[in-house]
Design goal:
Keywords: Membrane, Transmembrane, Transmembrane helix. The chain crosses the membrane at residues 12-32. The chain contains four helices and two strands, in the order αββααα. With 100 residues, it is mainly alpha-helical. It has two domains: 1-36; 39-100, no CATH class. A two-stranded antiparallel ribbon has the order 1-2. A hairpin with a 6-residue loop joins strand 1 and strand 2 (57-60). The longest helix has 34 residues, at 2-35. The protein is elongated, with a radius of gyration of 24 Å. The termini are far apart. 0% of the residues are buried.
Length: 100
């Protein structure tokens, strides 16, 4: 009877360690993918896609690309703000910055 109890506790510990290991691997994988987003070829190295604002967003880290975007505002890109930004700032304050 004592041996059966010991085997059950060993099995419980082994199962717990396996589950913990799987959780750690999954979190590590998620963290790696989050910190190293894929570039699918449409964008160059300084551009990456994310949904950090609650909608699909392209982020640029290149100064020349950012200057080109600002120079051609409302020509190549539609100016819009995600709800996650409009709600805390207020619709009036966001629309005040839009060109006519």
């Amino acid at each position: 009877m004592h041996c059966s109890r010991h085997n059950n506790m060993s099995l419980l510990w082994i199962t717990g360690l396996c589950v913990t290991a799987l959780v750690v691997v999954r979190i590590s994988n998620w963290w790696y993918r989050w910190s190293n987003p894929k570039s699918n070829g449409k964008y160059g190295r300084p551009l990456f896609r994310t949904s950090i604002l609650g909608v699909n967003t392209v982020i640029s880290t290149d100064m020349d690309v950012n200057l080109d975007i600002l120079r051609h505002e409302n020509e190549y890109f539609n100016l819009s703000y995600p709800d996650g930004l409009v709600k805390p700032l207020g619709k009036e304050s966001v629309e005040a910055g839009k060109p006519d």
